[in-house]
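#dry-run=false #mode=assembly
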Amino acid sequence: NAGVIQTPRHKVTGKGQEATLWCEPISGHSAVFWYRQTIVQGLEFLTYFRNQAPIDDSGMPKERFSAQMPNQSHSTLKIQSTQPQDSAVYLCASSLTGANERLFFGHGTKLSVL
Amino acid sequence: TQTVSQSDAHVTVFEGDSVELRCNYSYGGSIYLSWYIQHHGHGLQFLLKYYSGNPVVQGVNGFEAEFSKSDSSFHLRKASVHWSDSAVYFCAVNYGSSGNKLIFGIGTLLSVKP
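#status=ok
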């Protein structure tokens, strides 16, 4: 079991460009979470899928951010027109059934917006 | 507002010392508590969790935590730390009413000196 896989590990974009981050959850896990981590804000919840359906996106910025889970083997987080304040480590996690279970985290994608 | 607070930003101890990392939460009914560890450049790894039953829970690598309803606390302890325990430790809370997401504290950096 390779764990939660996130690609790329590092992504550098210019201001205004689009960034797509990928996450492959652990096989058999029905819950997928996205978090954003910065020094100032710490770990911020972004969104949660269960059985591929979006359940809670209360942490997603209303503009420019979107997340999908087209199949059980991967989820994407897309940021349109990236801004310097979007620079952060984006963490994906999966669990068997939900937030009351142990979460398995990927290594994260470090996004740098120049 | 449902929150979790970690009052110590940085704790420094010597190898072999005992350590306690503090976590307090705002009480909101049924609650699920956990601790995670993050080594530099990596994702978070699960240490232990509490939902009900014995308030003292054992985790990996000799860590334990004690739930206290009266103090609204879930402090993490280790009797004898090793240099490899140097990392950032996150307390996390999932409130039954929100249910869908773990809310993380800001984290405590533990530095273990030889």
